[in-house]
Specification:
Layout lengths: L2 H10 L12 H11 L2 E2 L1 H4 L8 H9 L6 H14 L3 E11 L4 E2 L6 E8 L2 E5 L12 E2 L5 E3 L2 E10 L2 E9 L7 E12 L5 H10 L10 E6 L2 E6 L2 E6 L2 E6 L2 H12 L6
Antiparallel strand pairs: 1-11, 2-3, 2-4, 2-10, 4-5, 5-6, 7-8, 8-9, 9-10, 11-12, 12-13, 13-14
Length: 261
């Protein structure tokens, strides 16, 4: 077993003896979402590194999280190691605040796998919007404890498919997630450095201004910003103001991240 395979299993709490199959991918995705936070502290602290296989492994060792290009890249490598036919793709996120597609380019990174001739979207890097299950590119609705999800073949300026979501306890109707082109796959992890550069440097990037950490839990999710800590527990939200000292304590206690902010 490779170093990456072993470390990823250790990080998400899956035995080295567990065979990873399409049938238990839900199990893997749930464990990943509850173990590895979606966070931007490296960007805020100006400590980003080149995206390589070895550097992604170091992030796991250091008990850090990451953004979509970190989280889906490491999951992609793990899936390949376990015999899956997988590829990385890029998409454009729909900005619900501005009511339009993001204008900084294809900065969302996700995974497409092929199983028995059917294409499925896999995503562990979309904050609290994770499907936690493979989503077929057939339009079929799939469900998890996080809500309902589907991918529709729908032509747009950004690709040939659109990912939709209806989050449990949060959405009453379907919402746009992101558009992507299923035919434009990423050939090498190094290509993701272009995405990281945009997210790190672009003035309209949503992730280079203030810290954000979020992770799914058994009963909902938790989100930490510079000034607030929010918990969703069985559909009920608890939000409280925090201090700078609280921020560091919450990182370690609730997100199990061994990093200083």
């Amino acid at each position: 077993m490779s170093k990456l395979n072993q470390l990823f299993r250790n990080r998400i709490g899956i035995s080295e003896d567990e065979k990873i199959t399409f049938e238990n991918l839900n199990f893997v995705l749930e464990h990943t979402a509850k173990s590895i936070p979606f966070e931007n502290l490296c960007i805020i602290k100006n400590k980003t590194t080149e995206l390589t296989r070895e550097n992604l492994i170091k992030k796991i060792i250091n008990q850090e999280g990451g953004l979509c290009y970190d989280l889906n890249a490491i999951l992609y490598l793990f899936l390949i190691e376990n015999g899956f036919q997988a590829k990385l793709i890029r998409g454009v996120i729909f900005n619900h605040h501005n009511k339009g597609w993001n204008t900084i380019g294809k900065t969302h990174v996700a995974i497409i796998i092929t199983e028995d001739g059917v294409l499925y979207l896999i995503d562990t890097g979309f904050g609290g919007n994770l499907p936690l299950t493979p989503v077929p590119l057939t339009g079929e609705v799939v469900s998890s404890f996080n809500g309902d999800f589907r991918v529709k073949k729908e032509k747009s300026e950004h690709g040939d498919y659109i990912f939709y979501m209806k989050l449990k306890h949060k959405d009453t109707d379907w919402k746009l997630g992101y558009a992507f082109d299923s035919t434009e796959d990423i050939q090498n992890i190094s290509e993701l450095n272009k995405v990281q550069k945009i997210i790190t440097e672009h003035p309209k990037s949503p992730f280079n201004k203030k810290p954000l950490i979020t992770k799914l839990t058994d009963k909902g999710n938790i989100t930490l910003t510079e000034n607030t800590f929010t918990e969703w527990i069985d559909g009920k939200v608890i939000k409280k103001e925090i201090s700078a000292d609280d921020f560091q304590e919450i990182i370690e206690k609730y997100f199990d991240m061994h990093t200083s902010y």
